[in-house]
Design brief:
9 helices; five-stranded antiparallel sheet; 389 residues; single chain; alpha+beta; rod-shaped; 7 strands
Length: 389
Amino acid sequence: MKIRTRLTVFFTLIFLVLFLVIFSFLFESFKMKMFNILDDRINHLVKKIIRDKKLNEITYYEELIKLDLTLPRRKSETENKDDKNEKKGVPFFWFAILDDKLNILNQSEYAKMYPVKIELKDTKKRFFIVKFNNPENDNFFTADRESLTYAIAKSYRMITRQNKTFYIVVLHPFTEENDYLKGLTSIIITIVVAFLVIIFMLGLLYAGYSLSPIKKIIRQLNLISRDELKKRISIKNDKDEIGELSQSINSLLDRIEKAFLMEKQFISDVSHEFKTPISSLRLSIESLINDHELNDIVLDKLGANLEVLYSIDFLVKKLLYLSKLEQGIITIKKEKINLNELILKIINNLQFIAQNKNIKLTGIVDKNCIIDADNELLYIAYIILSKTV
């Protein structure tokens, strides 16, 4: 994976985490605010019931069983709207009184219609959520609802005058609020996905823009070859990291160029220093070999030495050629060359070596074969060809 993609993915993930943290905090804060509002409503209703029914003055469970928990119904639209003396009933009233073993002592009509099983762990919670399965259409639950309807439940622990515990459980409808929270969650998810796409695209563009100087450096480096070591990376701003990188690369190129120049100079110097003494030794050994008074053993040793000198002489010529090639000063000096004379010279130089290896060298060239060529380069080429055969 390229650095551009990695940076984009990294910053996108950071944004996603921050976005989720912020929205989760805001969502939970809003949700708790909603629960607190419902909690206040339930507390207000329970306080009113405790006060009206005098539940804090109860002595026996029998008194709780005999309590009348029916409340006035909501006035219908057909009834007289000007009758201000008629009390308005609450839209939904789920109220139950349980003993210390959570058995129902008394309950409202809605509690009978929508029974809820209360467990001991529920009484220790601040509130808990209840699901009603397939409720009948009701004014408060509202018509045309889904098959599941929610309510928030809360329990209150009270004690009779005989120190017996009983619980008051109240439910408040939570359908609309729950649907609103679900819709809000969907909106948040949609916003997160949309922002992720936008941030990813902007991240790709910004990462590409930020890394463009590095791509420029790469292009400039690709243009620097062995023969163009004098080229350097252009620097626009030497204060940032890209500028420091360019300076480091230029320093490295300076050292490489210096090393190449030293290598070229060394090869050139060594080649010139070895050329003259090797030629002198070769001529001396060749003259000794032509002496007929020497025995075969001495001639063999001289031949072996001559073979080594030929190899060294040829190596020096190649080094000189390499030095000129690296310095770019090789020029082909064309001149009239008798090809027959050149071939005979090569055969003569290699004749003794060939004889020791049981190789017969012959050259069949027209005596008057004159060509335009570089004598030194042609000599090196024929020597190479002769050694590969």
